[in-house]
Amino acid sequence: MPLGRTYAVSLVGLNGYIVEVEADIGQTLPAFVLLGLPDASLSEAKERIRAAARNAGLPLTRRKITVNLIPASLPKRGSAFDLAIVMSALAAAGDVRGCGSTIFIAELGLDGRLRPVQGVLPAVMSAVESGFTQIVVASDNAAEAALVPQAHVRGFGTLAEVALAFGADPAEVELPIMVDPAQHPAAARQMRDVLAVPKDMSDIAGQAEARLAVEVAAAGAHHLMMVGPPGAGKTMLAERIPGILPDLTDEQAMEVTAIHSLGNALSCSELQRRPPFESPHHTASAASIIGGGSGIPRPGAASRAHRGVLFLDEAPEYQRRILDALREPLENGELVLHRAAGTATYPARFQLVLAANPCPCGLASGKGTDCTCSPQQRRRYFDRMSGPLLDRVDLQLPVHRVSLSDFSSGTSAEDSATVAARVSAARAVQRERLGRWNLHTNAEVPGRLLQAELRLPRTVTVSLDKAMEQESLTKRGYDRVLKVAWSVADLDGRTSPGKGDVEAALAFRTQERAA
To answer: Is the bond into 2 cis (omega within 30 degrees of 0)?
Structure first.
C-alpha cells in the first residue's frame, strides 16, 4: 500500500517551516505511532484523529498506522497538525487522493468538526513563500488566511467536507449534525464590539510643552519619557499617541496582524491598520513583556507593540532586568529569544513611552514641601532605570501640575485630527527624504548618515557640540538629538534643521535631568 503524504506548517516564532506528513499502514497489530519530535499536545492528536475520522464516516484502519513528521529534528507543537495527519492516513488507505501538494492547518474535534487555531496568518505567509499556494483551513480561519496574497484558501467546517473535496466516496462519508452556534459559544467565536469613549488630544488641558513633545515624538517615531506628579496628565498624553499616528502601510499591517495572530483566540478577518498600543502593568513578568514561556518562546508586549506604542507607566516600579532587556529592541527593532526548546525571533520596532513620578511618594514637584522622601530614596527610585536605557530615550521632559487657569479658561485645545494631519505630513516628508536608504522615520536613521549625507553645518550644531565637549551627552545621545531636530524641522515645514531646531531638540533631552 503506498504512502500517504500531505503538508503542514510548524511555527517557530513568526518563522514557518514546511513539514511533510507521511503515513504508512503496516501489516501488524493495531497501533498508531507518531514520529518526528511531537510535543504532548501533538501526541494527543492520535485519539482525536481516530474519533474524528470515525464520526465522519471514514474510520481509520485497525492495522498499524505510522505517521512521520519531516524534518524529524524540528520541534513540533500544537493541534494545528491534526488535519494534515488524518488526511495523510486516509490517503495511505486510499480513501482520499490528490492532497499531496496542499497545506492543511486545522484542529479536529471529536465529532469531526474543524476547529480554528492560532497563528494561521504567519503560517500561510510562510507556506506561500515556500511555494505552497493551496491551503485548507477551518472555516473560522478562512478570512484570516485569505489576507495573504497569492494564497488559494479553502475553508471547511468538517473533516467529512474536506474528504469529499479530495475524492472520498460520498456513500461512505457521514456529514455530522452541526450544533447551533447560539447554543455553543465555543463554536460561535464572535468578537464583540466594545463601546469605548474615543481618546482625543482635546481632552488634555494645558501642558503645551508636553503636547509639543508628544507631537514631535509621533512625527519621528522617537522614544519619550515624562516625569511629573500624579494627576499631571502623563498617562492621558501617552494613551493619545496612537490616535495621532498615521495608518500602517500594507507591509506593516501584515507584520502586526501576524504577530497578533499568534496569541489571538479569535481569527482576524482583516489587517490591523492602526498602530497597536500596549500598556503592561508594572507587576508583569519578564515573559509577558519581553516574551517567553514554555516550549518555543511566545511574543510579549514588546513584540505586540511592533509599529505602535509600548507604554510603561510608573516605569521605575518595573524590574530593572526587564527594563534593560528592552535595550536590544530599541537599537535593533527585534527580539531574539533563546530557550532550550529553540530560538524565536520577533519584530519589536516600537515607540517606548515611559512615565514616572518625581519620587516614590510623587510629591517632589514644585516646591516639594509635602514630599517625605529622602534624597537617598529618590536616587534609589530612579536608579532602577539604568543610564544605558535612558540614553536611548530621545525626549525627556518634566510634566508639571495643571493650573486652575488651564482648564477653567473655556478655550478648547487642538483635537487629535488636527495634530495627526501635521504628523502625517511630517512622516510623508521623511519617507521622501529617506526612501533611497529604505528608511521611513527619523528615528531609524543610522549615525553614519547623520555624519555624511545628512550632516549639518557646525554653525547649526554649535550648542550640541558644546554639550558634547562638556560630556553631558554621549555619542548616541548626540545622534538622537540630531534625529529629533530633523523631526522638529519636518513639523515646521523646513527642508533641514536650523540652529533653533537643534537647541529645541537638545532642551527636550536634557531638561528633565537638570530639573
So the answer is: no
Kind of pairing, strands 334-339 and 291-292? unpaired
CATH code of residue 12: 3.30.230.10
CA distance 300 to 364: 34
Q: Which residues, 6+ apart, have CB-to-CB distance to 173 below 8 Å?
A: 56, 57, 58, 160, 163, 164
Tell me how far apart the alpha carbons of residues 452 and 431 are, in angstroms, rounded to a whole number. Answer: 18
pTM listed for this prediction: 0.88
Domain with residue 452: its CATH number is: 3.40.50.300
pLDDT in tens, 255-307: 999 999 987 756 677 899 999 999 999 999 999 999 987 777 889 999 999 99
54 domain residue, yes or no: yes
| Structure-block grid coordinates of residue 286 | 519578564
Beta bridge partners of 33: 66
C-alpha cell recorded at residue 333 = 527593532
Secondary structure of 62-96 in the HEC alphabet? CCEEEEEEECCCCCECCCCCHHHHHHHHHHHCCCC
The domain in which residue 160 lies consists of: 4-174
- The CA distance from 373 to 369, in Å, is 11
State the Cα–Cα distance between residues 463 and 474, nearest whole angstrom.
14
Return the bridge partners of 226, or none.
355, 397
Residue linked to cell 538622537: 480
Residue 396 is which amino acid?
Q
